[in-house]
C-alpha cells in the first residue's frame, strides 16, 4: 500500500515537473523567463523547454500591435488660446525584456509621453496653424516619441490626432467672429451693388440727355431745311403760305378740341383773314 502511494506521488511529481518545464507559447506572444529571479531568456511562439523550479515565466507579452487611446487634454496655443486635443497611438513591442524591465508601466509611460509632447508641439503654434496642421503635428509627434520609446524595445507604428478643437468658450467667440465677418461682407456687397446701380442710372440719364439733344438738333436742322425749301418755293407768293399756315392752324385747333380739358372750340368764319392777321402779328 505504501508503495502504491509513493508511486502515485512520484507520478504527480513527474507530471508537475513536465508541466513546469514545457511551455507552449501561442503565436503573437513572447514569454520572458527568469532564472532564480534574474532575466534568463525570451521564449518565442511554439514549444519551449525550460528548467522546472529554476526557470519561471515572469511576463507574457503580446507582439501584436497595441492601440493606446490618448485621453483628451487642454492645450494652450502660442497665442494663448485653449484647445482640446486627443490622439491614438499604435505601438509594437519588439524586445519584450526591454519593455518589462525598462519601465514600470510602458502603456502609461507612452500615454504620458504623447500627452506631454502634444502640449509642447501645439504650444509652439498659433490657433489657426494648430487647427489646420494635423499632418505637421502628427509628424513632429512621431519623431519626438520614437526615439524615447526605442530604449524600451517598443516601436511607434503611427500616431493620429483624433480631435483638436477650440474650447466651448473659444468656439462661441469664433462663431460670433464668423457671423460678424459674413455680415460685413454682405454689407459691402450690398453697397457695391447700390453703387453700380447708381452709376448705371447716371450713365443712362447722361446717354438719354445726349440723345435728346442730338434729336433736337436734327429736328431743328430739318425745320431749317424745310423753311428754306418753302421759302424758295413760294418766293413772293402769299397764297401758298396762307394755305400752309391755315392747315397748321386747323390741326392745332383740332388738337385742342380733342384734349381732356377741351370743351367748345369756335373756329373763325374767315380762316384766311385770321391767318393773315397772325402773319401780320409775326411781321411786326
From TrEMBL:
Q: What is this protein called?
A: Membrane protein
**Which SMART domains does its entry note?**
PHB
**Membrane topology type:** Single-pass membrane protein
Gene3D superfamilies from the entry? Band 7 domain
Gene for this chain:
qmcA
Which species is this UniProt entry from? Desulfuromonas versatilis
- Enumerate the subcellular locations listed in this protein's record, separating them with semicolons: Membrane
Pfam families attached to this UniProt entry? Band_7
Domain of life where this protein originates: Bacteria
For this protein, the record's PANTHER family field holds:
STOMATIN-LIKE PROTEIN 2, MITOCHONDRIAL (PTHR43327:SF10)
Q: Which residues form the Band domain?
A: 20-178
Amino acid at each position: 500500500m505504501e508503495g502504491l502511494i509513493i508511486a502515485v506521488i512520484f507520478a504527480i511529481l513527474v507530471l508537475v515537473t513536465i508541466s513546469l518545464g514545457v511551455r507552449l507559447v501561442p503565436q503573437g506572444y513572447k514569454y520572458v523567463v527568469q532564472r532564480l529571479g534574474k532575466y534568463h531568456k525570451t521564449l518565442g511562439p511554439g514549444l519551449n523547454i525550460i528548467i522546472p523550479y529554476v526557470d519561471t515565466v515572469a511576463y507574457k507579452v503580446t507582439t501584436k500591435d497595441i492601440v493606446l487611446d490618448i485621453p483628451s487634454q487642454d492645450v494652450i496655443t502660442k497665442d494663448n488660446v485653449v484647445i482640446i486635443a486627443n490622439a491614438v497611438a499604435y505601438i509594437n513591442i519588439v524586445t519584450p525584456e526591454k519593455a518589462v524591465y525598462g519601465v514600470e508601466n510602458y502603456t502609461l509611460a507612452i500615454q504620458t509621453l504623447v500627452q506631454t509632447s502634444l502640449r509642447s508641439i501645439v504650444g509652439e503654434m498659433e490657433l489657426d496653424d494648430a487647427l489646420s496642421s494635423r499632418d505637421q503635428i502628427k509628424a513632429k509627434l512621431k519623431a519626438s516619441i520614437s526615439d524615447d520609446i526605442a530604449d524600451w524595445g517598443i516601436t511607434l507604428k503611427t500616431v493620429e490626432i483624433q480631435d483638436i478643437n477650440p474650447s466651448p468658450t473659444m468656439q462661441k467667440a469664433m462663431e460670433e467672429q464668423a457671423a460678424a465677418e459674413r455680415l460685413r461682407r454682405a454689407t459691402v456687397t450690398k453697397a457695391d451693388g447700390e453703387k453700380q446701380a447708381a452709376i448705371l442710372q447716371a450713365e443712362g440719364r447722361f446717354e438719354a440727355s445726349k440723345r435728346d439733344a442730338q434729336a433736337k438738333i436734327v429736328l431743328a436742322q430739318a425745320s431749317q431745311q424745310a423753311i428754306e425749301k418753302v421759302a424758295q418755293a413760294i418766293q413772293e407768293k402769299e397764297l401758298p403760305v396762307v394755305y400752309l399756315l391755315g392747315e397748321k392752324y386747323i390741326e392745332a385747333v383740332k388738337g385742342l378740341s380733342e384734349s381732356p380739358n377741351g370743351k367748345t372750340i369756335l373756329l373763325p368764319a374767315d380762316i384766311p383773314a385770321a391767318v393773315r392777321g397772325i402773319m401780320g402779328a409775326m411781321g411786326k
